[in-house]
Amino acid sequence: PQGSEEAKAFVHAFLKRSMPKKTDETIQDLLTRKAVVLEHYSKKKTKQKRKKTKGFTAKQRREMRLFEIEPEQQRYAIFLPLHELWKQYIRDLCHGLKPDAQPHMVQGKLLKADLHGAIVTVTKSKCPSYVGITGIILQEFKHVFKIITKEDKLKVVPKLHNVFSLELDGFISYIYGSKFQLRASERSAKKFKLKGTIDL
Fold first, then answer.
1. What percent of the chain lies above the pLDDT cut of 90?
2. Looking at residue 79, what DSSP letter applies?
3. How far apart are CA 115 and CA 146, in angstroms?
């Protein structure tokens, strides 16, 4: 066993290592009070800055023609599998589209759903040439739909002043384009008012 002097020396050396910023007098004062709080110095971690990946600007995307569909790919038959996927997606979203489903619930789901792949028809329009256009939605932008028809023609139809209808499993829904001028990503977070009349 250690002697009293050796024990004192060990305790003093241990406290000196544990509290390097305190003087011998301060350590001795703490010992007389019989209460010692050992200090802990943690190493500061240097935070690594994350590099933000820069995407293309709108001008660069236009110059690269990223959103343009090549003429040889503008065929209705190519996008029929996309329509089948969309139908299954809507059935899952609306829990099966059963006959007893409440129309306002289904309508609310469709308002926020992704419409890429849906077959839509222009039922009303201020421009008579748009009425009757039917096809699969290939692209949705803030102000227009790009639709491929059965005649393999790509139509750009504005949302403003147009009413679109889509049918799935006997349920027909109407989209008022004037109140639908949002990007697909923005629409999913928007709260729509289902009540009230909408004029064309």
1. 26
2. G
3. 11
